[in-house]
TrEMBL record:
Cross-referenced Pfam families: Rhodanese (PF00581)
Leader sequence residues: 1-18
Native species: Marinobacter adhaerens
InterPro entries listed in its UniProt record: Rhodanese-like_dom, Rhodanese-like_dom_sf
Record bears the keyword Cell cycle: no
Name of the protein in question: Sulfurtransferase
Length: 182
């Protein structure tokens, strides 16, 4: 019901402010449509680590890449078969600067996107809400989408998300938008 109400209000051009408890989600298609209609009024942020983007793909539709979590390549978690991740200490500062660079206030709509939507997309949106930003949403199922539950492609990320919605993306990175630590 909340998603339906959010979509209705966005269609009307009204702002929906989430509480600091929970950010609201948008689908990839809703986000794409919103950027096409009101791109100069929102900040669309890819919150993935740039190395992850390099291997999975990128959409130039985003305004900027500011990672919420950064992979620590000096700490491998054998039990999880991945590198440890730690919060980017410059995340909120980077968002503030990106808003300023675009001529937007901290009350402008910010949409975050990670690979799946749940591990960094929603947490990054919630983090921003808890740190003074008032209008934040995230893309449910993120850039790559969810894994298929059955069949020959079980586990492969071929369900929902930005890539699977047929929205623009490529393996080419835009150096003007990719995060480069200072």
């Amino acid at each position: 019901m909340r998603l339906l109400l959010t979509a209705f209000l966005i269609t009307l051009g009204l702002s929906v402010h989430a509480s600091a408890d929970e950010a609201l989600s948008l689908t990839a298609q809703e986000t794409y449509n919103l950027v096409q209609e009101k791109g100069d009024q929102i900040l669309f942020v890819d919150v993935r680590d740039p190395v992850e983007i390099m291997f999975i793909g990128f959409t130039d539709v985003v305004d900027i890449n500011i990672p919420f979590m950064l992979a620590d390549r000096t700490s491998f978690l054998a039990d999880k078969n991945r590198f440890a991740m730690s919060r980017n200490p410059d995340f909120a500062t980077g968002i503030k600067q990106a808003l300023k660079d675009k001529g937007l206030s901290n009350d402008a709509l910010i949409v975050t996107m990670c690979r799946s939507g749940s591990s960094r997309g929603k947490p990054s949106a919630d983090y921003l809400l808890q740190n003074g930003f008032t209008n934040v949403k995230y893309i449910d199922h993120g850039f790559q989408g969810s894994g298929a539950k059955d069949g020959k492609k079980a586990g492969m990320r071929i369900v929902n998300g930005w890539q699977n919605a047929g929205l623009p993306w490529s393996m080419q990175l835009n150096p003007e938008k990719i995060y480069l630590p200072e």
